[in-house]
Every structure is written in structure tokens, then in C-alpha cells.
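The pair is quoted verbatim below.
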Amino acid sequence: MMTGTISRWVVIAIWIIATVLLTFTLPAVNDKTENVPTDLPADSDSVVADELIKKEFPNSSGIPALLTWHREGGLTDADLAEIQNLSKELTESPLKQQSFLPPLHNAPLPALKGSVSEDGTTFVQPLFFEESAGTAVLEKNIERINKLVTERVGTDPSKVKIDSEDLSLRVTGPVGISVDATGLFAGADIQLLLATVILVLVVLLLIYRSPLLAIIPLIGVGFAYLVTSPILGFMADHGWITVDAQAISIMTVLLFGAGTDYCLFLISHYRSELRRHESKREAMMAAFKDSSGAIAMSGLTIVVSLLTLLVAQYGAYHRFAVPFSLSILIMMIAALTLVPALLSVFGRASFFPIVPRTPEMEEARAKKKGKPVKIHKEGGRIGKWIGNIVTTKPWTVILTCLILFGLLAGYSSQIKYSYDILSSFPEDINSREGYTVISDAYSPGELAPATVVVDTDGKDIDLTDSLKDMSLIGSVSEPVRSETNKDLQSYEVKFNINPYDTKAIDAISDIRSSVEKELKEAKISSVDEKVWIGGQTAEQHDKRETVKADEFLVFPIIIVLISLLLLAYLRSVTAMAYLMGTVILSFFAAMGLGWIILHHFMGVDAIEGTIPLYSFVFLVALGEDYNIFMVSSIWRKKKTMPIKQAIREGVTETSGVITSAGIILAATFSVLATLPIQVLVQFGLITALGVLMDTFIVRPFLVPAITALLGRYAFWPSKAPIHEEKERSN
């Protein structure tokens, strides 16, 4: 259908009409992103605790913004007066969704001075907003605060350097962190898209040296994105899915990387067939026949892997599933319909100025011009060399690869993980600078106190001293009783370390155990149901536990599902086993190599805790892509030639296109490493390394060597090809 004189135009028209209709009738996905989506399940301990705190202790509820005032030479009385003026203005004219503000303007100056840090440089003014306040509202509120102060002091304190002798103001705490995180991802969208498009275009031009051929894959990817965006927007508008800026940013990279790969595999086959067929239609039909199955299988592998994230409990994982899988599914359809139709329209002109022709066409063209016949040089010298190595010395290749990958995979066990969102921010961003000021001037625990709530069963119990005795606790407030339930009392607990640090997160379990022990000693029953811990640190603790549980669940499901797809496609248990095994090994090797680079060369103390599952999903699915394309070539050739020859020719045939595809995919993921967000830097680097390992080691060396070593058993339980039997009998 895609190659007919009329049908190819019908296919192109369908895509154009669908794109226009969807774009003008449905909302774009970027208009439906949620800035503060929920990541933790509703039954998580910290979520339950926060709900209880809002209900029973309403005065302590709300999202805190910590207005951090600082002057390096020491705050003056005039500075404190400005703080009181701001307090008065915000009391008389509250900000949108402002829930609580301590009335500092009513406090005498000596009392205010008592809250200044010991070194006299810093004052923290808390300001609370309703839990439902969105990031857009909070961002405008911060802008208004800066404007109010600027109008009075003459300079914008948010722009003043914190080591300056002038008065500076930084908004940190959960509000400042949320606003800064959204701002970073908002700026990343356009930057990612432009960088990815330019990068793919440049690489395609270098590979094919044809302007038109470089544009055709981008047209296919562009249409896929334009169709995907409104469909996702429609689903989000109806509440079927939740999307966030981070997911859409990475979806764009994946779409361009994987989508261009699919186009390359078709283009490579088409170019080869144009040297065999004079008719461009026959060439496209032959190319489509050879590549469509592998492209469809590759796309399904990624779609299934990404949909597996729907079983995850952590919200960020869950939100990735539908946008990513839908975009790949639509891209796969575009690669099998729109791209073949475009190539059929342009024909050989797609490859101008290096146009592929049959020998007869070259001879006729040379005769017409009165020039000698241009002889096409067969490429793939490196591929032929690799093919000979893997078939003549399979044990050497396998052992070398296993030793290298084994060492790197072993190093992955040394990785340290962090759940500190601040560490992923640039050091000069406002919320991180504010935290630094607080850490230097006060206890770092001021940034995000934890709230411990206990049900005393009516007994007179004071946990203040036992909580203070814990090594990581800096201070504990006096207990506050609930007005509606006198059995409930709460304590505000401040850590003496970064509340987002792993040690503080570990301490949540210790706090719970300590409190439960005190309640047991007081003869209170069912203590595990009478202790609640809320706050940012408790949320990070639950995040870590949820992420670990998701890894334990998702990893095996992905392995099983992809294994079943491979088994259905190749009909070989043996091939399925070693194809999955090599990709899993390369994942752990990529994690190990990524940690070596991040830790020893980039000075990263720990990587973000969600990275392993993200990287596993992409590397296993994308790694199998390349295995499928290469093994499909061997499987096809083994029907007409001995297995070792099929391996040599299969490696030679696919080496160029898979190498090009791998470079493009790795390059698109490496674009993430250019962003000022550490979690994307780490994910982009590790994924790019994994793709390069699959491209240059697993696909050309390890998999073909294993196939050569196993011989006919590589196809078990399928029957060995007759040529292999003859080869063995000779």
C-alpha cells in the first residue's frame, strides 16, 4: 500500500489530516502537565501521617516556604524592620492560597533579634501555603515577595549574591524547592527539543551525506510527536493519565532516538535493494519485507517494557508508562507507513547526491555520458573482520567480553544512592543557596522538620527527652495536643543534619521504633497503629521503600515479557536465553561504568535512587532492539547458507546501520547530560553508555560469538538448517 502510485499519497494524506484534526481539536499535552503530581501511594505512612496532621493539627498544616534573609556582615536593625514590614504587608494583603504567617510585625525588636542566627547574619521567616497550591501559584507568590521587598530596599534581594555585604533573600524549603524544580524542567523542554533535532540532523548528514535523507526521518518523528501530543493531552484532560514536564522531556528524546533508528533500518535496506532493483517500488517492497518484522518486533519490545511501569507504585514511574509507550507505538506505525511512503515518493532522489543504482543502470548512465562505469565499492570491511573473528575465535571473544562486563557489573554493587532532591539542583539556584545559608547559620534540619504524632490512649506520656537522646535529632518541640482528639499529641523534630540525607532518611525507622518502644513500656497496645511520622524526610523514606519494591516487581516482569516476545519471534529457547542474558549483563556493566565516571571523575557522591529502574527499562528494551535487528539478519540468511557464513554476512550487513543507529540513540540520550539537573545528567550518561556497549560490544561481538559457538543449538528447539548439517558432516 505504501509504494503504489496513488496509495502512497493516500498514506501521506491520512497522516497530514490526522495531525491537523488532532492538533486543532484536542489539547496539547504540554497544556495538561501537572507541576506537583503525587508520587507516593495514598496508603504510604507519610501520606497518611500528613492527612492526619492536617485534620488534627490544622495550625501546623500547609506547605512551608522559608524566607531566608542574609547579610554577610550581619543583619542590621533596618533589615529586621524590612522583615517586619513584609510580615505586615502579607498579613494585610495575603498572597494567593497563603494559609499561615507568623505575625513578626507585632513582635518587639529584641524578640526578633533572639531568632537571628548566632553569627548575626541570617534570619528565617516561615510562610505557609495551602496544600492544594500549585507550583504556578507559588511561583507568582515568590515573585510578588521579591517585588515588594525590591520596592522598599531599592534592589532585588533574590539577585544579590549570598556572600555579598548587601541584604539577600532566598526562598527555600518545600515551596522554594518545588518552584525551582518546575522551573528547571520547564526550561529543559525547548532546550532538549532543539538540541535533539540539531544533533540528529547533523549525525544523519554525516552518515548519509544527503540533505533529503536526513530530513525524512525527522519528518516521520515530527508527525509521530504531533499525533502523540494531542492524544496524550486528551487522555490527561479526561483524567485517564497524569503527565509531568519531566516525562514529556525524556519522551521527546526517546522518540527522536528510537524513531530515527527505525527509519535508519528501513533506509539501509532500501538503499541495498535499490542496487538490486531498477524499479524503486520493487526495491521498497523488498526492503519493507526484510525490515518490517524486525521494526515491529523492536517497537513492541519497547512498548511492552514501558507499559510494565503501570504496575509500579511510585508515581513518577507510573506516569512514564503511557506517554512513552504510546509515542513509541505511534512512531513504529509511522516508520512502517509514513516513512516508506515518503521514500517511495522521492525514490532514488532521497539519497542525492550519492544515488544507489543497479549495475545495469550505472553502465547505461556511464555510456550516455561517455564516461567509465562507476564501480560500487562494497563496504563493511570492519564488519567482515568482526564476522571472521567471532566465527573463528568465539571462546576468546566471549571470555574477553564476559571478563570486561563482569568487572564493570561487579563495580555496580559499590553504587551509593541518594534521595536528596536538592543535590540534583545547580549550586547557584535560589532554593539550594537558601539551604546552604541555613545550614551554615543554623541547624540544617531547619529546612524540613519532621512531625511525630502519637496516640497516647489517654495516658500522660512525654516523648521529648527520648527523641532528643537520638544522635541525629537536633531539637524537639514541646508536645501539642489535638483539639478534637485529646489522645493525639505531636512533636516537631528537627534533624542536626541535612533532612534529605540518607542518614536522616534511615533515622525515620529509628524514630518510629523508639517511639513504639516508649508506648509499649507505657502498656499501650497495638503501638504499630498509633505512631505517625510526617514531613519531607518521612516522604523521602517512603519514596525509597516504594522505589525498592517497584524494582523487585518490575525487573522480573520485564524480563519475562520480553523473553516471551523473543520466544514468539525467534521460536528458540536458546536464543531467547542468551539474548536476554547479554542485555541484562550489559545493563549492570553500564551502571558500574556510569558510577566510575560519575563518582571518580565528576565528583558525584551518590546517584538518584530512581535511576536503576529507569535505566533498566530503557537499556533492556533498546538493547534487545539491536539484537533483534542483527539476529533477524542471521536467521534469514541461515536458510540459504551455513550458519557461520550467515553470522559473518549478518554481522557485515547490519554493522553499519546498527552502529549509526546506536551512535544517534546514545547521542540523543547524552543531550540529557547537558541539562543543569543531576538526575537527568545521571540517567542520560548511564543510558548512553549502555547503548554504546550494546552497539559496539554486545551486538557485534558477544551475541554473534555465542551464536557461532552454539551452532545449530543456537536455534533449539527449531530444526537446524540443512546447510549446517551438511557443513558438520563434511
